[in-house]
């Protein structure tokens, strides 16, 4: 497949681009907002295309042209305010869903947040972030896209183990960003993840085995 990674300049995005390029099963394109981000992603093995999540749906659809799958792992980041969280994590995500449907792209993977579906689990400190993730998830549920929603726990920068736990009622936990990228890559063509949403933390099962049990 030709896979477009939105948020490719982020930590998970870069790892995903590199993993997909090394696996060689899919062509990978990194959507970037700034031209100066291009060289580093090309060196990881990606093609690049320009796109802005605060731009129009039509422009985003143009960036998606000739792709078979979209991965949304973008985020406004912890240093921005609630306004940017709503513009990127919510409206930006929903616009990419609309753009994908406009282009006739079916496969769509969204990186959400652990417990985003359960309001009682939201942290007061970053409640706007959870609100954005919650309603982006709901927009994807309501779409005609063949979605997978991945809700990772606390993100760590340590090397991945390749062993995870997935489910819809897991106890809170953490996971390495490298393993999140692995799960995204493995989910692209794993039919057990189609039209599914699940929490993700470090665990005891190999990625392929865990996803196969969904």
UniProtKB/TrEMBL annotation:
Domain (NAD(P)-binding) ranges: 7-190
Domain of life per record: Bacteria
Name the UniProt record assigns to this protein: SDR family oxidoreductase
């Amino acid at each position: 497949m030709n896979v477009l990674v939105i948020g490719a300049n982020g930590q998970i995005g870069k790892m995903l681009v590199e993993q997909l390029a090394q696996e060689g099963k899919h062509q990978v394109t990194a959507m970037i907002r700034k031209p100066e981000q291009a060289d580093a992603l090309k060196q990881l093995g990606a093609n690049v295309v320009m796109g802005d999540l605060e731009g129009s749906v039509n422009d985003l659809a143009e960036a998606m042209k000739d792709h078979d799958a979209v991965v949304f792992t973008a985020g406004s980041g912890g240093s921005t305010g609630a306004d940017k969280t709503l513009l990127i994590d919510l409206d930006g995500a929903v616009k990419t869903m609309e753009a994908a449907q406009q282009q006739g792209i079916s496969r769509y993977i969204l990186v959400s947040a652990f417990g985003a579906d359960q309001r009682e689990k939201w942290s007061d400190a970053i409640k706007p972030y959870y609100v954005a993730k919650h309603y982006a998830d709901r927009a994807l549920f309501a779409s005609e896209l063949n979605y997978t929603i991945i809700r990772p726990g606390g993100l760590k920068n340590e090397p991945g183990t390749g062993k995870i736990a997935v489910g819809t009622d897991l106890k809170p936990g953490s996971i390495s960003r490298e393993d999140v990228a692995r799960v995204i890559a493995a989910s692209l063509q794993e039919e057990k993840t189609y039209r599914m949403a699940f929490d993700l933390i470090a665990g005891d099962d190999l990625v392929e085995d865990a996803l196969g049990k969904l």
